[in-house]
Amino acid sequence: MEKAMHGAHGVGYEVYKRKHDVRMQVEKKREQDYRESRRMIADLERKVHVNI
For position 47, what pLDDT does the model report? Predict the structure, then answer.
C-alpha cells in the first residue's frame, strides 16, 4: 500500500495518516480523478450508443 500511495500521490501512507492537510489534498485529488473518469466513461457510453 505504501508504494501505491506514494506512486499515485507522491506521499507515503505514514505522512498521509499523520498530516490532515496532506490527507485533504490527496482526497481532493482522488475526488477530481474519480469525477474525470466518470465523465470519460459517460462520454464513451454515449459514443457507443450513438454508433449502434
Answer: 92
